[in-house]
Amino acid sequence: MLTDPATDVFEEHRPVLHGVAYRMLGRVADAEDVVQDAWLRWSAADRAEVREPRAYLVRVTTRLAIDRLRQVQSRRETYVGPWLPEPVVTDIGGTAPDIAERAVFTESVTLAMLVVMEALSPLERAVFVLREAFGYPYAEIADALDRSEAAVRQLAGRARRHVEEGRPRFEVDPDRQRTLTERFIAAAAGGDLDGLLNLLAADARLVGDSGGKSKAPLRIIESADKVGRFLVGVAPTGGPGMEFTLLELNGGIGLLAHYGGKPDTVIQLDIEDGLIQTVYIVRNPDKLVSLAFD
Fold first, then answer.
1. Which of 7, 61, 114, 211 has its CA 20 to 30 A from that of 53?
2. What's the average pLDDT block by block, 10 residues per block, for the chain (294 residues)?
3. Residue 255 CA from chain centroid, whole number
């Protein structure tokens, strides 16, 4: 069976390109559009002049993602309620570059980190993603962004300071994540307020994203007591047509609820020192399409 060398090269690098675009944009559809545009650029390019295909493709993808991010940021200003990135099923072990440790690569794709990166300018975000998540040297980032290396280092410094100010801490052990998530779901579904309060940090927060298209709080809920009482009041208890699955989402354990065969809710927790710091709930149906059962 004959293969197209140009397609083979592009498909070889597609996971990295999608990883860059998703971290830049926080939405699967936007990331896929950017990668498709990158393919069109690649298929039309004079590939004989391309010495390093991966560097070329990352450069094109990053620039396209910057342009797309500038477009979508204006739309997010009118978004109904808190905005959260779109949850994605991850296989970190299959996509992490050799030079990045799993913990570093995982952190860059968590919901919490993607939320923190929303405060960065498009250029700062691009530098942060390429440097921190993928380990690119400053010189290569400078080439990708058509900036001087000195300018890139300044962007990296500003981005790192912004991220450090809002950087959440994570419990990265999957077994501990799963155990605490299971206890959390059991307490919420069972109406066990005391059980929830034992799991929540005193200053715990709940962030819900519905986009105004389903039921979710339109403001961030703060304090363990308020978060616990809200969860006891609204947590699903199962019933006909409701299915629950624990799986790896954005590098950590998350709960996916399907209702009538369609994805209904994603819940993911930020955990520090054995306590839940933030509860993320995504209910915007547009952000759950990629999680539908096959």
1. 114
2. 75 94 95 97 88 93 97 86 93 47 67 92 96 93 96 96 80 81 92 96 96 93 96 71 86 89 92 92 94 74
3. 15
Pair type for strands 275-282 and 262-272:
antiparallel
Residue spans of alpha helices (H) in the chain: 5-25, 28-44, 53-76, 92-95, 102-107, 111-117, 122-128, 138-145, 149-166, 174-189, 193-199, 224-234
Residue type, 44: A
The label of the residue with tokens 């293969």 reads 3
The token pair that represents 241 in the structure block? 């047509």
b/e per residue 171-181 (b: at least 16 CB within 10 A): beeeeebeebb
Structure tokens at 124: 């700062």
Cα–Cα dist 232/64, whole Å: 44
Q: Do residues 13 and 53 make contact, with C-beta atoms less than 8 angstroms apart? A: yes
Query: Roughly how many angstroms between the first and final C-alpha of the chain, as a whole number?
Result: 28
Residue 80 DSSP code: S
Q: Any idea which residue has 């819940």 for tokens?
A: 267
